[in-house]
Design a protein that fits this description.
Blueprint lengths: L2 H10 L3 H12 L3 E4 L2 H14 L9 E4 H6 L9 H8 L11 H22 L1
Parallel strand pairs: 1-2
């Protein structure tokens, strides 16, 4: 993604207080699975703190990166590599866009669950 495109997207993006109610409703008390959940947890906490908003706590965090680290020789796989390791088909779109990355995580978990079912 070109830097000027990033600037353009961010310039017109809603501020955190505008999307906070939706995010809170979506993840509060639910299972949140991310790729690099520690980073997402930290960003969520820092952003809530910066805007003096209550922290949003999912019922549980899961991490596709952590799930696949052992399979990747003890190294954290990037999202693209994690998709390959899990045997998941990449969706159309661009990495590091929220919807695309979320769909990748969903596909990784689905592929891992499917392979676990066939292994038993």
């Amino acid at each position: 993604m070109k830097p000027e495109l990033c600037f353009f997207i961010l310039w017109f993006a809603p501020a955190w207080p505008e999307v906070y109610p939706q995010v809170r409703q979506f993840i509060s008390g639910h299972f949140a699975i991310c790729h690099n959940a520690d980073f997402d947890r930290r960003m969520l906490w820092q952003t809530c703190k910066a805007y003096d908003l209550p922290y949003i706590e999912p019922a549980r965090w899961g991490c596709t990166m952590d799930l696949l680290t052992e399979t990747n020789g003890g190294r954290f796989p990037n999202l693209c590599h994690a998709m390959r390791i899990a045997g998941a088909v990449s969706p159309d779109g661009e990495y590091h866009r929220a919807l695309f990355d979320a769909e990748c995580c969903r596909r990784i978990v689905s592929a891992l669950a499917a392979s676990a079912k066939t292994a038993t």
